[in-house]
Amino acid sequence: MTWMKSLALLAAAALLAGCANQGTQSAYDYSALRESRPASILVLPPLNETPEVIAPAAMLAQMTGPLAESGYYVIPVGVMAETFRQNGLDQAADIHQVSPARLREIFGADAALYTTVEEYGASYRVVGSVVAVRARSQLVDLRTGKVLWSGAGAAVKQSNNNGGGLIGLLISAAIEQIANSLSDAAFPVAGAASYQMLAAGRNGGLLFGPRSPHYQPE
Prior knowledge:
Blueprint: H1 2-20, H2 31-36, E1 40-43, E2 47-48, H3 55-60, H4 64-69, E3 73-74, H5 77-86, H6 92-95, H7 100-107, E4 111-125, E5 128-141, E6 147-160, H8 165-183, H9 186-198
Parallel strand pairs: 1-3, 1-4, 2-4
Antiparallel strand pairs: 4-5, 5-6
Helix pairs in contact: 1-9
């Protein structure tokens, strides 16, 4: 499928960027994260600051991958969602208000990931369209309530229409914008943004977890 190919390319670019920055991680203060040494992470439903109602679900579906690949055990999203639903919580804003101690008691995780989607979707431009996703996250220790790490990720896919004159450019751009909206062209871009934000090894990114061969406990 086209979106799967796009996701693979975008994610690969994000991971390559992370690998290139492995040697400069010392610029970020990892003292809290190193002291806590979380092994398991509960990914909470993201808050949504965009007009796109599908943005939180699209991000949530693709955030566990980079965390697991970085060496952390991630509480299954289905288990998380069903547990909250059975307790009358189905809105991200309400879930984010649950105390760290209570989350620890329910799920047994060491840390929770709090995320906000700041931008999601396609926007119309005169000579093309831009699909952009931007989000920020905080990793909070559920044992102490302390913020262990914070970071952000963004990915953009831009299309340009050349040829056909100004009228042709306008028509092509409008058609592309409609197609992007109908097909949720932002979904693979959200995958790339998730990797860029959560994959370990990049400058300012998460440290590798205990399940990774790159884990450094000291």
